[in-house]
Write a structure and sequence with these properties.
- This protein folds into 2 domains: 18-187, Hypothetical protein af1432; 209-461, Jelly Rolls (Sandwich), CATH 2.60.120.620.
- Strand 2 and strand 3 form a beta hairpin.
- The protein is elongated.
- 39% of the residues lie in helices and 12% in strands.
- The strands form 2 sheets. A 7-stranded antiparallel sheet has the order 1-8-5-10-4-3-2. Strands 7-6-9 form a 3-stranded antiparallel sheet, with no helix packed on it.
- It is built from 16 helices and 10 strands.
- It is of the alpha+beta class.
- It starts with 17 loop residues before the first helix and ends in a 10-residue tail after the last helix.
- The protein binds fe (ii) ion (2 copies).
Length: 467
């Protein structure tokens, strides 16, 4: 069957944030309490809710969401041609197009698209006719009647065909007036989590490729490895959305930690830390199998997340004095870390991007000035190489290589994720790290008046601009 023209599909930009897409879908479904379900004794909404309630018992997320949304094509496109008063022509194809556009897993759309084919497949059996409602029997004829042998063979060859048949069963059974099933509110968080997981999979995908022998050799030589522009297109766009979400989160005691710097004018956000427990997408990126596998390749043994932060470095934001990370990371007796920089924006000399010096052996600390930064004379004698990175680049560096950055002299933010990992064999100390940091150098919202936090910040403010 050809796809009907889709001129008035659920009105939302497929690139909109997940919450906006869920809002638009929910509004369409909520309106279906009014929509009578063509020739059936339940509303469209009740029909979907009943089908979903049955499907949820399978534990199959794609099948469950397909059951909830299998008839969305009747609702999504008011301009679609009507099938003699029995709903939109090709509502199954419209439904698939809508769900693909909203960012559902492809299997959800495929199942939805199949629910008419499944009826035509089952209609080959004489006994099936008794299960069909009068309206379904009428639409069957308009939808092409029972499948031919060749069509049935093709249907059976589809790897999803068992789920397609189960979906059809839930559909037939979901026409009971007054059935008591979970309402639409039950499904909102489930849909939202599904869309977020799909989005995160897109961001993570570029990191699923193993590092090459040449990349590993470069790492052993330089203690620095760059994957220029690793995240691009949809992956980078989603990363931007996530980082803006964090920027907008309100300062909240006991949760994510927001730090500010102060110039002559108002305070300016410079950092958010401890956000992995609160952001599923970033958690999947930073703690998921792909990045952990790459870190394992670099470490030669399993890695473990130690701490995460995003530096916003808004225009005018100050730089970081030359330093090694190791002295700031030794709280728990760890000797070695790898930090992953994910460049949210381009990192250039003009906007205060990082500069690196030569690698330093594990365990070796350069002379320091008070406060822990590299001593001035040492800094002056070292070679420094700016690292210009396009947005979406991923760079790995160890905790001994000296690095520094300048002021953001551009008129754009220069945001970057800095995520640090230790050897898993040295223990999971992330929670301990953030508990200690909160106690020692808390975010502004958690500070008591009259305490000189800068004086006691110590390792928690090495070389950086937080005031
Ligand atoms: Fe349908
Ligand atoms: Fe249906």
């Amino acid at each position: 069957m050809s796809l009907a023209p889709c001129t008035a599909l659920i009105d939302v930009d497929p690139r909109a944030p997940v919450t906006a897409r869920v809002d638009a879908l929910m509004a369409t479904l909520a309106a279906a309490t009014q929509a009578d379900y063509i020739g059936e004794p339940v509303t469209q909404l009740a029909h979907g809710l009943q089908a979903a309630a049955r499907a949820q018992a399978t534990g199959d997320e794609a099948l469950t969401l397909a059951a909830l949304l299998h008839d969305v094509g009747h609702l999504a496109d008011p301009s679609a041609p009507d099938m003699q008063g029995l709903g939109a022509v090709n509502h199954e194809g419209i439904g698939q197009a809508v769900l693909d556009r909203l960012g559902f897993a492809p299997a959800v759309g495929r199942l939805v698209e199949s629910h008419v084919a499944a009826k035509r497949y089952l209609a080959r059996r004489a006994a099936y006719d008794g299960k069909l409602s009068e309206a379904s029997r009428q639409t069957l004829a308009l939808q092409g009647g029972p499948m031919t042998d060749a069509e049935a063979a093709a249907f059976e060859a589809d790897p999803l065909h068992r789920q397609m048949l189960r979906l059809r069963g839930f559909d037939e059974a979901a026409k009971i007036p007054g059935a008591d099933v979970p309402g639409l509110d039950h499904w909102r968080p489930i849909i939202e989590a599904h869309l977020r997981a799909q989005e995160a999979a897109t961001v993570v995908a570029p990191l699923t490729t193993p590092l090459t022998p040449a990349q590993l050799a470069a790492w052993r030589r330089d203690a620095l490895l760059v994957l220029p522009g690793a995240l691009a297109g949809d992956a980078l766009r989603t990363l931007h959305t996530w980082i803006e979400e964090l920027q907008g989160w309100p300062e909240t005691p006991g949760r994510w930690m927001k730090y500010f710097e102060r110039g002559t004018e108002a305070r300016q956000l410079c950092r958010v830390e401890d956000f992995v427990p609160y952001h599923a997408g970033l958690a999947q990126l930073l703690c998921g199998d792909a990045l952990m596998a790459r870190l394992g390749e670099l470490m030669g043994e399993p890695a473990c997340l130690f701490k995460e932060k995003i530096n916003y470095k808004l225009p005018g934001g100050a730089g970081f004095t030359a330093h090694q990370d190791a002295p700031a990371f030794d709280t728990f007796g760890h000797r070695y870390h790898i930090t992953v920089l994910i460049a949210v924006d381009p990192q250039t000399r003009a906007n205060g991007g990082l500069e690196f010096s030569d690698p330093v052996a594990e365990g070796e600390l350069l002379p320091q000035r008070p406060g822990g930064a590299v001593a001035e004379a040492t800094e002056a004698a070292l070679p420094w190489r700016p690292l210009d990175l396009p947005a979406g680049s991923v760079a790995f560096f160890d905790s001994y290589i000296p690095h520094r950055s300048g002021t953001n002299a551009s008129d754009q933010p220069r945001r970057g994720l800095y995520v640090t990992y230790n050897r898993a064999a040295d223990g999971d100390r992330r929670a301990d790290y953030f508990a200690d940091k909160r106690a020692t150098f808390p975010p502004e919202i958690e500070r008591e008046p009259g305490v000189d936090y800068l004086a006691r910040a110590g390792r928690y403010n090495v070389g950086n601009p937080i005031r």
